[in-house]
């Protein structure tokens, strides 16, 4: 058996590409070329983005996606790149400042000593975000990433955000003095509240912080802030439209006492209207201001109705989250507690305890479910169809299965047994009699010759051990070790042979194919031995 090392040092090198799959740059190359490679590397899919490990389960799929992006030669930003995660952190801050500043400026701008620089900077950031939306790929429902520039542009332009983003970001105050346009179009930025929460969630995930309650508090804060500003702004806007700006200013002078910048007056009126707004939302009895326009009373009614619906919705979300937490996450931690107690009683070493924890975290993804119970509730036809769907992608790569009819192949699928191997686990040992074939569902394994030389890597969709499936006395010619957590399906010889007991001609064809592959493997092995003997320094 090969010596198991804690860290795999790969002996297979690729001189044509670096780890980023980009062509190597000479150390004496111009600064512009090195900068270009650095920027290109930042927009490639990266395992440092937390979303990558959720979307791509194994390193092999990440490498394939990176190759696809590099070979395309495009400068489209991958949604799971390093650049994107830091950009979303920045835009989360920009969207939050917009959602606070824009309604405040529209409603109480005459009481605040506003700096146009702030307004222009926020608009510039939002305009740049529009550009970035045309240059960033997006996830498809089919669990793929769309990187085609035309499709990205079509998806964004005909989506729900483009028009609102454009109208709320253009600096209309430079070309027009119409206060209605200048104050109202930026308010459309409220449609980006959902994007703000998505970016916040990803940013907190990057720092491994649970963000649900922070996001909920942010929603409540911004909605009450928006409604507070609207409660003050809409009556004045209605008066300005119906009676003119002179009548509006006269009403402000009568109620507020000033049209000049005054921070203390702003704070007094803002807190007063925030109190009124939260009172309406919480359906607390509040005395009306009868000298205000009729629209103020309509606002109060709408706020009362909205408050009941909104807080009922929030309550439902909290109850549902608590229910899910109790039924999946709590059960997972309860299971881990039982496992910990079991390992403590039997005095498992720390190293073994960590491996057991790693196994359970991968298997259940931090949420416990009874797989057998779910599977048992399915009909036999549905269970077979689901299994066929899960296995067809990598079974179709097995040449010895090409000639097997689909009805027999379905019987073979039933015999497959799922197994999970942790990093450095030995799946097959060279020189022993094997009786199983393995299909890699997810993960990467390394194949070693009997002398310990690393031959190749196999990953998602690959298979190994087919020789043992049809030759009962043939010893394995290579060792296979898991490089990361691997989910594989094992097919034993006896059930496989039983499935083909009425298809002897077919079984002989499979044997011939296996012999051909065995001969090719032996030839490769002999060439490696010859190379090693003539070049001993490669060891």
UniProtKB/TrEMBL annotation:
It comes from the Eukaryota. The chain crosses the membrane at residues 90-112, 118-140, 152-172, 212-234, 294-319. This is Cyclic nucleotide-binding domain-containing protein. One of its GO terms (molecular function) is voltage-gated potassium channel activity. Keywords: Membrane, Transmembrane, Transmembrane helix. GO terms for cellular component: HCN channel complex. PANTHER family: CYCLIC NUCLEOTIDE-GATED CATION CHANNEL SUBUNIT A-LIKE PROTEIN, I[[H]] CHANNEL, ISOFORM E. It comes from Zophobas morio. Gene3D superfamilies: Helix hairpin bin, Jelly Rolls. One of its GO terms (biological process) is regulation of membrane depolarization. SUPFAM superfamilies: cAMP-binding domain-like (SSF51206). The keyword ATP-binding does not apply. Signal peptide: none annotated. The keyword Nucleotide-binding does not apply. Residues 400-517 form the Cyclic nucleotide-binding domain.
């Amino acid at each position: 058996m090969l010596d198991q090392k804690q860290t795999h040092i790969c002996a297979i090198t690729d001189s044509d590409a670096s780890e980023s799959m980009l062509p190597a740059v000479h150390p004496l190359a111009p600064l512009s070329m090195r900068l270009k490679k650095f920027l290109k590397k930042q927009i490639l899919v990266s395992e440092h983005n937390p979303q990558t490990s959720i979307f791509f389960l194994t390193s092999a799929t990440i490498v394939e996606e990176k190759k696809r992006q590099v070979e395309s030669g495009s400068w489209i930003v991958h949604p799971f790149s390093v650049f994107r995660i830091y950009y979303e952190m920045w835009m989360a801050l920009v969207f939050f400042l917009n959602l606070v500043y824009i309604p405040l400026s529209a409603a109480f701008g005459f009481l605040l000593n506003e700096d146009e620089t702030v307004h222009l900077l926020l608009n510039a950031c939002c305009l740049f975000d529009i550009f970035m939306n045309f240059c960033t790929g997006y996830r498809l429902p089919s669990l793929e990433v769309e990187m085609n520039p035309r499709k990205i542009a079509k998806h964004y332009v005909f989506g729900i955000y483009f028009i609102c983003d454009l109208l709320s970001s253009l600096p209309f105050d430079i070309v027009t003095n119409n206060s209605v346009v200048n104050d109202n179009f930026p308010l459309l930025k409220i449609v980006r509240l959902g994007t703000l929460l998505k970016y916040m969630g990803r940013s907190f995930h990057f720092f491994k912080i649970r963000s649900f309650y922070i996001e909920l508090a942010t929603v409540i804060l911004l909605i009450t802030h928006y409604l507070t500003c609207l409660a003050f702004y809409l009556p004045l806007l209605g008066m300005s439209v119906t009676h003119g700006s002179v009548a509006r200013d006269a009403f402000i002078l009568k109620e507020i006492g000033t049209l000049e910048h005054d921070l203390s007056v702003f704070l007094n009126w803002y807190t007063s209207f925030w109190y009124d707004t939260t009172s309406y939302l919480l359906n607390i009895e509040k005395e009306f201001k009868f000298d205000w326009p009729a629209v103020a009373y309509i606002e109060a009614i709408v706020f009362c109705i909205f408050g009941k619906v909104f807080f009922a919705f929030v309550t439902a979300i909290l109850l549902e989250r608590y229910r899910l937490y109790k039924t999946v996450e709590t059960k997972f931690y309860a299971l881990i507690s039982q496992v910990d107690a079991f390992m403590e009683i039997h005095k498992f070493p720390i190293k073994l305890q960590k491996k057991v924890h790693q196994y359970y975290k991968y298997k259940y993804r931090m949420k416990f479910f009874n797989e057998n119970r779910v599977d048992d509730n399915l009909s036999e036809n549905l269970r077979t169809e689901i299994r066929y769907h899960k296995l067809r992608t990598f079974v179709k790569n097995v040449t010895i299965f090409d000639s097997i009819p689909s009805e027999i192949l379905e019987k073979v699928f039933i015999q497959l047994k799922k197994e999970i191997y942790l990093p450095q686990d030995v799946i097959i040992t060279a020189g022993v009699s094997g009786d199983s074939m393995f299909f890699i569902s997810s993960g990467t394994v390394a194949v070693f010759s009997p002398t310990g030389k690393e031959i190749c890597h196999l990953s998602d969709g690959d298979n190994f051990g087919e020789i043992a499936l049809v030759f009962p006395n043939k010893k394995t010619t290579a060792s296979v070790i898991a490089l990361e957590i691997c989910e594989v399906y094992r097919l034993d010889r006896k059930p496989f042979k039983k499935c083909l007991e009425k298809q002897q001609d077919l079984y002989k064809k499979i044997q011939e194919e296996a012999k051909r592959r065995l001969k090719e493997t032996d030839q490769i092995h002999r060439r490696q031995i010859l190379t090693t003997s003539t070049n001993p320094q490669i060891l």
